[in-house]
Structure formats: structure tokens, C-alpha cells
């Protein structure tokens, strides 16, 4: 059983449906004891960074999630849930994130259409080729995005990246901690394969 964090900001239904397809049991919760007893955690998210962080604060989840990550339990942030893992966001101001990954979240400044919406090809960082999350994934697998902000720079924790007007981190993390800027639950067979890899990290 994994815990999907219920903090009133999320693409919950589609995530739950995708987990059902790969046979990964889940519970939607913000209860501390349930989260602590779960074998893995998913932090979904859509909307504004400031609102999402405030919701985590209001539900007393910030310290709890930071502590659970430190235990080595598999943890996956999706879309906004990935951005929340970083130190700061500059979405309509400057706001502090969970700070478990190094980096800032910044807006696209490009002549291309924003938000970046639709399919884009993953390129795997060869330093992470052996990471279990990408064992069933290859270069040029296409995943689905909807976002106007991205993690600035290809920091050392980038597992895979995509290119829009510039390269940006699409899949990041270290060891048990992962973030996907794209929506695996909306990325067809590739997304299900990535979630299956996450499931295998749990088991």
C-alpha cells in the first residue's frame, strides 16, 4: 500500500486510475500514521506553487514528508509535486519549497507557446542509466507535459531531460526520491512503464 498525499491540490483521479492499471494498491490520505506506515509515497499536484505549499503547511505535512524522504522510502512527486521538492519557486513571487532537492523553479521565457503542453521526448542522462526508474525506458520515449515553470538548469540530480526552447529537467532525483515534471498517468504505455518501475522500487 502506498500513500497518495491528499492536500487539496492534485490530479488525483487520473493518478489513481493509472496505479490501478499496474496493480499498485493506494490510499488517499493526509493522516500522519497512515503516511508513515505506507511503503511508498506519491505527491501529485496541479495549480500554483504558493497555494500548494500553503496547503502542505496548513495540513502539517511539510516536516512529515521531509522526514519520510530521509527514511529511504520511495517517494515520487508529479508535475507541481516535483517542483515542490526544490528549494524555491519564482512563480508570481518567491516562495520556499520542501528543499529536499537543490534548485529553483522558474518560468519559461520563450517565444514558444507557454504553457509547454503536449508530448516531448525524454533523453536519459547516462550517469543515471542504471537507475531503476528508467530501466524500462529509452531515449526518445515520449511523455506528456502541461507546465509553465521548470527547474532552472540541468542540475546533477537530473535523471532525464527534454528540450523545449532549452533543455530542462523532466525526471530528477536521487536514490529513493524522484520527481517527474511530466504526467506519467497521462503518458500512455510509457507512463505506465515508469510507474511500474516505481512500483518495483517499492517491492
Helical stretch count? 6
CATH topology: Rossmann fold
Strand content: 25-35%
- Gyration radius (Cα, Å) is 15 Å
Q: Summarize the helix and strand pattern as letters.
A: EHEHEHHEHEEEEEEEEEEH
Number of domains: 1
The residue ranges in which pLDDT falls below 50 over 5 or more consecutive positions are none
- Look at the structure and give the mean pLDDT: 95
- List how many beta strands DSSP finds: 14
From the spread of the alpha carbons, the general shape counts as: globular
Name the helicity range. Answer: 25-40%
Structural class: alpha/beta
Describe what this molecule looks like in 3D.
It is built from six helices and 14 strands. It is of the alpha/beta class. It has a single domain, classed as Class I glutamine amidotransferase (GATase) domain (Rossmann fold), CATH 3.40.50.880. It has an eight-stranded mixed sheet with strand order 2-1-3-4-14-13-12-9. A four-stranded mixed sheet has the order 6-5-7-11, with helices on one face.
Which keywords apply here?
203 residues; alpha/beta; Rossmann fold; eight-stranded mixed beta sheet; four-stranded mixed beta sheet; 6 helices; 14 strands
Task: Set down the secondary structure blueprint.
Layout: E1 2-5, H1 12-21, E2 26-29, H2 32-37, E3 41-43, H3 49-58, H4 62-70, E4 75-78, H5 80-83, E5 88-89, E6 95-96, E7 104-107, E8 116-121, E9 123-124, E10 142-147, E11 149-151, E12 158-163, E13 167-174, E14 177-180, H6 188-202
Parallel strand pairs: 1-2, 1-3, 3-4, 4-14, 5-7
Antiparallel strand pairs: 5-6, 7-11, 8-10, 9-12, 12-13, 13-14
Amino acid at each position: 500500500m502506498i500513500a497518495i498525499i491528499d492536500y487539496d491540490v492534485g490530479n488525483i483521479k487520473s493518478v489513481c486510475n493509472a496505479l490501478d492499471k499496474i496493480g499498485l494498491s493506494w490510499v488517499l490520505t493526509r493522516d500522519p500514521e497512515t503516511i508513515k506506515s505506507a511503503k511508498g509515497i506519491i505527491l501529485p499536484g496541479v495549480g500554483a506553487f504558493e497555494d500548494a505549499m500553503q496547503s502542505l503547511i496548513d495540513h502539517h505535512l511539510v516536516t512529515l514528508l521531509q522526514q519520510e524522504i530521509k527514511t529511504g522510502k520511495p517517494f515520487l512527486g508529479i508535475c507541481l509535486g516535483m517542483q515542490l521538492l526544490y528549494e524555491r519557486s519564482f512563480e508570481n513571487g518567491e516562495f520556499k519549497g520542501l528543499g529536499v532537492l537543490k534548485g529553483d523553479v522558474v518560468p519559461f521565457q520563450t517565444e514558444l507557446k507557454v504553457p509547454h503542453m503536449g508530448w516531448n521526448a525524454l533523453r536519459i542522462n547516462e550517469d543515471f542509466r542504471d537507475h531503476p526508474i528508467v530501466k524500462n525506458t529509452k531515449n526518445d520515449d515520449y511523455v506528456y507535459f502541461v507546465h509553465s515553470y521548470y527547474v532552472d538548469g540541468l542540475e546533477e540530480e537530473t535523471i532525464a531531460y527534454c528540450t523545449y526552447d532549452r533543455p530542462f529537467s523532466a525526471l530528477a532525483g536521487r536514490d529513493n526520491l524522484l520527481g517527474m515534471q511530466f504526467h506519467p498517468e497521462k503518458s500512455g504505455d510509457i507512463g505506465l512503464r515508469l510507474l511500474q518501475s516505481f512500483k518495483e522500487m517499492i517491492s
